[in-house]
Amino acid sequence: MIRVPLRVSANAGAAMSEIITEEMYQLKQLIMQTISKRETLKDEMNEWYNRFPNERFAKLDNLIVIDSMLSELDNNYKRLWDFHNRQAKQA
């Protein structure tokens, strides 16, 4: 488990520790990779619609799948963060 310094505005600038497990770290890496893929597809989509304004983006289904994956990864990370950091807060 890794403790990371964290600044929270609700604590008027007081430093706190954030617990990041190995699983959470891996999820963060997957989230960043997925965001990168999503941004690449969004750029491709913008180019597509500039060239073919009346046609459906050929990779729209891929973008929908990536958005769904990103949502799942984010939900899993939040669940783990809440679990580990609420426990630390209460201790």
Descriptive account of the structure:
By secondary structure, this protein is α+β, with helices and mostly antiparallel strands. The chain has one domain. The protein is 67% helix and 13% strand. The chain contains 2 helices and 2 strands. Strands 1-2 form a two-stranded antiparallel sheet. A hairpin with a 7-residue loop joins β1 (2-7) and β2 (15-20). The longest helix is centred in the C-terminal third of the chain and has 31 residues, at 60-90. The two termini are 16 Å apart. The model is unreliable at 7-12 (pLDDT under 50).
Rg (C-alpha, Å): 18 Å
Low-confidence residue ranges? 7-12
Major sheet characteristics: 2 strands, antiparallel
Would you tell me the overall average pLDDT? Answer: 87
Number of domains: 1
Globally, the shape reads elongated
| Percentage of β-strand residues | 5-15%
Distance between the termini: 16 Å
Tally of extended strands?
A: 2
The percentage helix is 55-70%
Class inferred from helices and paired strands:
alpha+beta
**What's the helix count?**
2
Side-by-side strand order of the widest sheet: 1-2
N-to-C SSE string, H for helix and E for strand: EEHH
- In quaternary terms, these chains amount to single chain
Describe how the helices and strands are arranged.
Elements lengths: L1 E6 L7 E6 L1 H30 L8 H31 L1
Antiparallel strand pairs: 1-2
Task: Write a short abstract of this structure.
With 91 residues, the protein is an alpha+beta fold. Helices cover 67% and strands 13% of the residues.
